[in-house]
Design brief:
TIM Barrel; 309 residues; alpha/beta; single chain; 48% helix; 14 helices; 8-stranded parallel β-barrel
Length: 309
């Protein structure tokens, strides 16, 4: 039996379900008061909303994975972290891949503790996001979990993020030549090549890259520079990233395109729910249906843009 790493599983699921990643960055403020009051607490309302979205997108095959941003759950305290763990479990039970957006990066001993925290135990996940800017030695405590004997986990390394400040870090020219972001990209490729014998015949490495859909000037160059790296592509939807930019990044090894607020807050723009919004009588089913509809629209929008390349 061939052992597949989690990034390979995600790449294959994206080919079946489409490239959409649903971001469960679920802040209680994204839910209407009527839903929170009906459920009884903000934390329980977030969990129920997450589960309803997960159930719908899994049934409709409108997404290949969910990205769960831990900060929103940390902000809710201990109850929020319990909701975080339960959300991770719900995604896995639905047959989807779960990405924990933790953006960790620290010296070796601390990084090792972060890796244990998110690849084992209560917060065990499939894939994480990590920050390389304390040096490449800080990546090894995470990437070692990509080995078959360590759990076939994976990670997305920050390469070219969707925020404007990325230009401050990624685009300076190094004294040795080339951009800093290319130095990071080359290291990702090197790490993946080190796993080549362990995952012979698989079509991407276990380490991916975060590349924002808002950086149009960089999209084609980065995609061509790292043809075998699977991308996590934020910025589509509420952050203003266009489907055509995301489609460029979906070329070659492909990727998964995240939409968070666009889906979570779809109920705020739904014409069908206008009267209920005005009456403050929205139900959990109402807002979950709106999220599901937006997810399906986003999937088709991305597939159409990819077909037009």
């Amino acid at each position: 039996m061939i052992t597949k790493h989690k990034m390979q599983e995600l790449q294959e699921l994206a080919a079946v379900n489409g490239p959409l990643c649903v971001g469960l960055d679920t802040d209680p403020s994204y839910l209407p008061d009527s839903v929170i009051k009906a459920v009884g607490s903000p934390e329980e309302a977030v969990l129920m909303y997450n589960k309803e979205i997960i159930r719908r997108i899994a049934a409709e095959k409108s997404a290949c994975c969910c990205k769960v941003q831990i900060a929103y759950y940390e902000a809710m305290g201990l109850k929020g972290l319990k909701v975080y763990a339960q959300t991770l479990q719900a995604v896995k039970e639905a047959g989807l891949i779960v990405i924990s957006d933790i953006k960790r990066g620290d010296i070796a001993a601390t990084a090792d503790a972060y890796a244990r925290a998110h690849f084992t135990g209560d917060f065990e996940t499939d894939l994480i996001t990590i920050n390389p800017y304390m040096g490449f030695d800080t990546l090894e405590p995470f990437t070692k979990y990509s080995a078959p004997e360590k759990g076939v986990k994976g990670a997305f390394v920050l390469l070219c993020t969707s925020n404007p400040g990325m230009n401050d870090i990624g685009h300076p020219v190094l004294k040795a030549g080339g951009l800093l972001l290319d130095r990071v990209g080359n290291e990702i490729a090197r790490i993946n090549s080190s796993f080549g014998e362990k995952y012979d015949g698989q079509t991407c490495g276990p380490i991916g890259a975060v590349v924002g859909a808002t950086q149009e000037a960089d999209a084609r160059r980065i995609r061509d520079a790292y043809p075998e790296t699977f991308f996590l592509i934020p910025g589509y939807g509420a952050q203003g990233g266009a489907a055509r930019i995301a489609a460029t990044l979906l070329d070659k090894a492909g990727g998964t395109v995240n939409s968070s607020r666009g889906i979570l807050c779809a109920w705020k723009k739904s014409e069908a729910l206008a009267a209920r919004r005005e009456e403050n009588s929205l139900s959990l089913a109402d807002i979950a249906d709106a999220a599901s509809e937006n997810a399906l629209f986003s999937k088709n929008d991305l597939l159409s843009a990819k077909a037009a390349l």
